[in-house]
Amino acid sequence: MAAEGFLEVENLEAIITRIEQKSRKIESLLKQSKPVEALKTALEGSPLKTRDERCKSANWIVVHRAIMAIKDVDGMLASLDPEYYDILMK
């Protein structure tokens, strides 16, 4: 049981690290005026199966940042591939 807890903590730290890296990439894309690409990047690799609220919250902040930069949300939703749309709805 203790080994499982250690692995879970290790995995959570890896997830947080990936979200932080993704955040930096998204900021770069937003500075380049590529908000839809930023949103797709934000949605890729989202930790959908984790129950950890810290991971979910950190990921939502990244996704929210990308969404808020998009001026034509309806157009963005129409242009998303179904896989991204599914992730966004989760």
Automatic annotation (TrEMBL):
Reported function: Functions as component of the Arp2/3 complex which is involved in regulation of actin polymerization and together with an activating nucleation-promoting factor (NPF) mediates the formation of branched actin networks. Arp2/3 complex plays a critical role in the control of cell morphogenesis via the modulation of cell polarity development.
One Gene Ontology cellular component: Arp2/3 protein complex
PANTHER family to which the protein is assigned, alphabetical: ARP2/3 COMPLEX 16 KD SUBUNIT P16-ARC
Annotated compartments: Cytoplasm, Cytoskeleton
A Pfam match: P16-Arc
BP-aspect Gene Ontology terms: Arp2/3 complex-mediated actin nucleation; regulation of actin filament polymerization
Keyword Transport applies: no
Annotated keywords: Cytoplasm, Cytoskeleton
Family: Belongs to the ARPC5 family.
Cited Gene3D superfamilies: Actin-related protein 2/3 complex subunit 5
Annotated organism of origin: Cocos nucifera (Coconut palm)
Name of the protein this chain belongs to: Actin-related protein 2/3 complex subunit 5
